[in-house]
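Priority: medium. Attachment 1 of 2:
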């Protein structure tokens, strides 16, 4: 299937604006060395080979991860109106596991899926779980994907130093993000699912 409108909702791995306090000077997926090496831009190149006219949108959606229990999906109406025919949910790392049950992350994650499915029945959705291993969050995302009949990708096997940018940045939080090797691995796993 050829996708014309692709939407990716992610977090700092998807996009992080420059932040001097973190020693991060770039405006792309943390912590790729250049923009073309983050997983977003690897995917964009792959999509454009298949369809040069593809319309691609991606945002840092970490506010949802941090505040899903009170986040209004009306805030992203413009993204729904974009009418994607492929939606990739690439997040989970910022979800507080200590509040995951009391705030019912599962229900809110399902609501996010249904929000985009509504009036868009042909939409393909891929849920991509955590780069940093978090069994509880990963299990919820997997169960939500299964219950809503959408695709699921696990990244937990990438939670190794070789896939991070460890030692390349003074700030360990930045360095723990995927480096170029990790970004390529994420893009490859997503692309494999798209090609099925």
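Attachment 2 of 2:
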């Amino acid at each position: 299937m050829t996708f014309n409108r692709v939407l990716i909702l992610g977090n700092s791995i998807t996009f992080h604006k420059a932040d001097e306090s973190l020693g991060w000077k770039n405006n792309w997926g943390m912590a790729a060395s250049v923009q073309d090496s983050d997983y977003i831009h690897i995917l964009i190149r792959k999509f454009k080979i298949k369809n040069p006219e593809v319309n691609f949108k991606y945002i840092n959606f970490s506010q949802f991860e941090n505040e899903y229990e009170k986040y209004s999906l009306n805030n992203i109406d413009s993204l729904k109106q974009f009418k994607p025919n492929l939606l990739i949910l690439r997040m989970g790392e910022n979800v507080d596991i200590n509040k995951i049950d009391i705030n019912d992350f599962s229900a809110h994650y399902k609501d996010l899926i249904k929000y985009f499915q509504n009036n868009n029945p042909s939409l393909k959705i891929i849920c991509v779980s955590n780069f940093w291993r978090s069994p509880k969050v990963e299990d919820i995302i997997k169960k939500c994907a299964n219950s809503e009949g959408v695709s699921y990708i696990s990244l937990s096997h990438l939670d190794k130093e070789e896939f991070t940018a460890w030692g390349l940045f003074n700030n360990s939080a930045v360095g723990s993000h995927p480096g170029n090797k990790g970004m390529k691995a994420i893009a490859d796993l997503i692309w494999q699912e798209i090609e099925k």
